C-alpha cells in the first residue's frame, strides 16, 4: 500500500494546513501513533473547534493554548482512545470549552458534555459514525472536501481493529462508505495529510478482503485455532507482532462467523459447509 511518510515534525508548533485549519503534533511517538497524535485546530463560523486534544501531556496542552490564545469554543473527539482524549480534561479546564463525543464513549472515565450522533452538524462539520477501529469513532466532513478521518483512515499505516470493541465488519463498511463519497483530502489522527484519498481507501479495503480470503484458505478442512491460522499467514513475525496479528485475525473470524461462513471459537474455527468461500 502506498503509505505516506514525513520527517519528525516540530512538536508544539501549530502548522497551517489549509485556510482555517492548523495542525499540532503531540509528542507521543510510537509504533501505533507514528510521530504522535494530530490535534486539529479548525476555524469555523462558530469559532474554534479543537479536534482530538491529544494525549495527557501538559506540554501539548500548553502548545494548544498558545496557538489558540486560550479561546477554544468546543473540543471534538474522533474517538476516546487515550492518545486522543487524554488532554481533553486539562484543555476543558483551561478554556471552559465543552467536550463532544459519541454518547457511549469507549473511555469509561470520559463523559462528554454533548453527545454526537451520525449526521450531526457541528459548526460546519458533519459527523459520520465510523465504528471499526473503535465503537465510538467518528469522521468529520467539512464543506470543501476535507474529511477529518481520525484513526479510521490514516495516511501512514492501516488501522488496528481489535475485538471486542474493534469490529471488522463495521470497519470495512466504513471504508466502503468513504469510497462512495468524493472527499479530496483526509486529515487523520496520525500522519501527514492524505490528498486524493480514494486510492488508499480502495487499497485498504482490498488488503482486508485479501486477508479474509487467506484466512479462509488457511482454515482448510480441519478446525484450527486462531494461533494456528496466524502461524500459517504470518511467517517469521516477532511475538509482539504476532499478538497484534492475532487480534486482526480474530476480528476477521468474528466477521466471517457473523456472516455464517465460519463457526467455532478460540478453541478451533472451521468452515461452514456450503458457505460461499468468497464474496
Ligand atoms: Zn490514535
Give the N-to-C terminal Cα separation: 22 Å
Q: Any idea what the radius of gyration is?
A: 20 Å
In one word, what is the shape? elongated
Biggest sheet strand order reads 1-2-3-4-5-6-7
The number of distinct β-strands equals 15
Mean pLDDT, all residues: 95
The total count of helices amounts to 7
The helix/strand series, from N terminus to C terminus, equals: EEEEHEHHEEEEEEHEEHHHEE
Into which percent range does the helicity of residues fall?
25-40%
Range of strand content: 15-25%
Concise overview:
This protein is an alpha/beta fold. It has helices at residues 58-68, 82-85, 88-95, 168-179, 198-219, 226-233, 239-258; strands at residues 15-18, 21-25, 38-44, 47-51, 74-76, 99-102, 114-116, 121-122, 125-129, 138-142, 146-150, 185-188, 194-195, 262-265, 268-271.
Name its key features.
30% helix, 279 residues, 15 strands, alpha/beta, binds zinc ion, single chain, 6-stranded mixed beta sheet
How would you describe the overall organization of this protein?
With 279 residues, this protein is α/β, with parallel strands linked by helices. The protein contains seven helices and 15 strands. It has helices at 58-68, 82-85, 88-95, 168-179, 198-219, 226-233, 239-258; strands at residues 15-18, 21-25, 38-44, 47-51, 74-76, 99-102, 114-116, 121-122, 125-129, 138-142, 146-150, 185-188, 194-195, 262-265, 268-271. The strands form three sheets. Strands 1-2-3-4-5-6-7 form a seven-stranded mixed beta sheet, covered by helices on one side. A six-stranded mixed beta sheet has the order 8-9-10-11-12-13, with no helix packed on it. A hairpin with an 8-residue loop joins β9 and β10. α1 crosses α3 (88-95), α4 (168-179) packs antiparallel against α5 and α6 crosses α7 (239-258). The radius of gyration is 20 Å and the shape is elongated. The model has no long low-confidence stretch (mean pLDDT 95). The site of zinc ion has 8 residues, from α2. Residues 33, 37, 81, 83-84, 151, 189-190 line the site of zinc ion.
Amino acid at each position: 500500500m502506498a503509505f505516506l511518510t514525513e520527517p519528525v515534525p516540530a512538536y508544539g508548533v501549530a502548522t497551517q494546513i489549509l485556510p482555517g485549519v492548523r495542525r499540532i503534533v503531540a509528542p507521543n511517538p510510537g509504533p501505533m501513533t507514528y510521530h504522535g497524535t494530530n490535534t486539529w485546530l479548525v476555524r469555523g463560523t462558530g469559532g474554534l473547534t479543537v479536534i482530538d486534544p491529544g494525549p495527557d501531556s501538559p506540554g501539548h496542552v500548553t502548545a494548544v493554548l498558545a496557538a489558540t490564545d486560550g479561546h477554544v469554543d468546543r473540543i471534538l473527539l474522533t474517538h476516546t482512545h487515550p492518545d486522543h482524549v487524554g488532554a481533553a480534561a486539562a484543555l476543558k479546564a483551561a478554556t471552559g470549552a465543552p467536550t463532544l463525543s459519541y454518547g457511549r464513549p469507549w473511555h469509561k472515565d470520559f463523559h462528554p458534555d454533548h453527545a454526537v450522533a451520525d449526521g450531526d452538524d457541528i459548526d460546519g462539520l458533519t459527523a459520520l459514525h465510523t465504528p471499526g477501529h473503535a465503537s465510538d469513532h467518528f469522521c468529520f466532513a467539512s464543506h470543501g472536501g476535507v474529511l477529518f478521518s481520525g484513526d479510521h483512515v490514516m495516511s501512514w499505516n492501516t488501522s488496528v481493529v481489535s475485538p471486542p470493541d474493534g469490529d471488522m465488519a463495521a470497519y470495512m463498511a466504513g471504508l466502503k462508505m468513504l469510497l462512495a463519497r468524493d472527499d479530496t483530502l483526509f486529515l487523520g489522527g496520525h500522519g501527514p495529510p492524505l490528498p486524493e484519498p480514494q486510492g488508499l481507501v480502495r487499497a485498504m479495503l482490498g488488503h482486508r478482503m485479501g486477508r479474509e480470503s487467506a484466512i479462509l484458505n488457511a482454515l482448510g478442512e480441519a478446525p484450527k485455532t486462531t494461533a494456528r491460522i496466524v502461524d500459517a499467514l504470518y511467517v517469521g513475525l516477532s511475538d509482539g507482532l504476532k499478538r497484534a496479528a492475532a487480534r486482526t485475525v480474530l476480528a476477521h473470524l468474528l466477521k466471517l462467523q457473523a456472516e455464517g461462513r465460519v463457526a467455532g471459537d478460540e478453541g478451533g474455527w472451521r468452515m461452514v459447509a456450503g458457505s460461499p468461500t468468497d464474496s
